[in-house]
Amino acid sequence: MPRTIALVEDDPAIRENYVAALKNQGYEVNAFADRPSASAAFAQTLPDLAIIDIGLQEEMEGGFVLCQQLRQLSQSLPIIFFTARDNDVDTISGLRMGADDYLTKDISMAHLLARIAALFRRTDLLAAPKQQSEQVRVGHLQVDVSRMTVSWKGQPVALTVTEFWMLHALIKHPGHVKSRQQLMDESRMVVDDTTITSHIKRMRKKFLQLDDTFDHIDTVYGMGYRWQNH
Questions:
Q1: What pLDDT score was predicted for residue 95?
Q2: How many domains does the chain have?
Q3: Which residues bind DNA (predicted)?
Q4: 131-187 pLDDT per residue, tens
Q5: Cβ pair 131, 146 in contact under 8 A
Q6: How far does the chain reach from its first CA to its final CA, in angstroms?
């Protein structure tokens, strides 16, 4: 059975471009131009993954509303937010909205497809019976690499796929500085410096929501970031 992807995007050119590329990869694609039509379809049948534009026609935050609807219907369905500018994403609390990843619309098709594949891989891992898992423990942080899950002091941290691989890059060598380029390479993405900064900020915020004393992700000005054990 081919996997079904719902694409909710109000720009016809972008929508058609992505529908063609996704179908070319063997996915079944249901495309929607606005929130009401997507919402009605989701109430009937859920896709295997949803790609949602944040601003939908007159609804500046229509994508958020859709995401919340999907989360009520399914906790595990992978959701990717599309945003025109990365600074929009800074205002999003991923924990509150429930998206699995955020991508800016200038991302290449190859990277979008890699992101989708990573999310399906994570879904499959979570659904699979527990096998031998690769665990990394650094102080209070526990990372299950094979299942792509993270916990801090025993509490789960809801990281996106992008954030997960960035964190993984930082903790492989605690105390060592990772440049932005290294973080990009290891998170399997091509983005600009400001996007890396946004991801790091969001990641910190998620840890701080669980523990207001959290201070383990350091910015090393002019060089990059590191994970510090105190």
A1: 45
A2: 2
A3: 133-229
A4: 666 888 999 999 988 778 899 999 999 888 778 888 998 998 889 999 888 887 776
A5: yes
A6: 49
Same domain, 196 and 154: yes
d(CA 195, CA 199): 6
Q: Which of 88, 106, 127 is the last residue of a domain?
A: 127
Both 19 and 122 in one domain: the answer is yes
Q: Which amino acid is at 94?
A: G
- DSSP lists the bridge partners of residue 155 as 152
Q: How many residues does the chain have?
A: 230
Q: Are residues 117 and 178 in the same domain?
A: no
CB 80 within 8 A of CB 116: yes
CB 50 within 8 A of CB 79: yes
Q: Say if residue 85's pLDDT is above 70.
A: no
Same domain, 36 and 143: no
| Amino acid of residue 230 | H
Kindly report the CATH number assigned to the domain that includes residue 180.
1.10.10.10
Same domain, 149 and 103: no
**CA-to-CA dists, residue 150 to 28, 55, 133, 140, 141, angstroms:** 31, 30, 13, 11, 7
- Please check whether residues 26 and 62 belong to one and the same domain: yes
pLDDT of residue 186: 74
Q: Is 45 a residue whose pLDDT tops 90?
A: yes
Instruction: Report the alpha-carbon distance of residue 32 to residue 198 in Å, rounded.
Output: 28
* pLDDT on residue 134: 80
Q: How far apart are CA 197 and CA 193, in angstroms?
A: 6
Q: Calculate what percentage of the chain has a pLDDT beyond 90.
A: 41
Nearest partner of 39 among 79, 68, 5, judged by Cα: 68
